[in-house]
Design brief:
The protein is of the alpha/beta class and about 150 residues long. About 35% of the residues lie in helices and about 25% in strands. It is built from 4 helices and 6 strands; from the N terminus they run E-H-E-E-H-E-H-E-E-H. The model has no long low-confidence stretch (mean pLDDT about 95). Bound molecules: flavin mononucleotide. Flavin mononucleotide (FMN) binds next to helix 1 and strand 4.
Amino acid sequence: MNIVVLYGTESGNSELIAQDLSDKINADGQSAEVFDLQDFEPESITPESFYIVVCSTHGDGELPNTAQDFFEKFSTFEGDLTGVRYAMFGLGDSFYEETYSQGSEHIDRRFTELGAERVGEYGRHDASSWDLPSDVALEWLPAVVAAADA
Ligand SMILES: Cc1cc2nc3c(=O)[nH]c(=O)nc-3n(C[C@H](O)[C@H](O)[C@H](O)COP(=O)(O)O)c2cc1C
């Protein structure tokens, strides 16, 4: 199955994670491609691919810069995403108690509203932890890929 890794970022962490996830998927013999959400259109989402969305949180629980235009289009997108499966990896900082990791959740809710199905655990990286973002994401990945293949 082709895996499309989408990222939304402001300071580059989500992009690095997306690239590392894609490199790992390709090294393991599956096919993955990476897109910045600002270069991606909701119309491109099809049940033939599996989507991994990596997205941070900025402002006051809002989406990062490179996800904002996509989300505006996604909010008014009227397609039916029944049959589409995806996984979410959210970045945030638990220092922001009220809005921790909420940026990615805007995208997650819209996928679900449109009929898509999230598989695997909802992955998270907390910038207040000592964990390296890519280490957390690469640990999270195998169960998600297994769920995608199921
Ligand atoms: C100005 C600013 C606002 C932020 N607001 C939030 C927030 O509301 N909630 C949250 O969980 N994290 C927040 N963060 C933390 C980022 O989500 C975190 O640093 C993340 O790793 C950034 O990833 P990125 O480089 O892909 O944008 C904020 C960071 C900055 C610099």
